Amino acid sequence: MAVCEVCNNDYEMAFEVRTADATHIFDSLECAAQRIAPTCGNCQCRILGHGLQADGQFFCCAHCARQRGHTELVDHA
Ligand SMILES: [Zn+2]
Ligand SMILES: [Zn+2]
Question: pTM of the full predicted structure?
Answer without folding.
Answer: 0.70
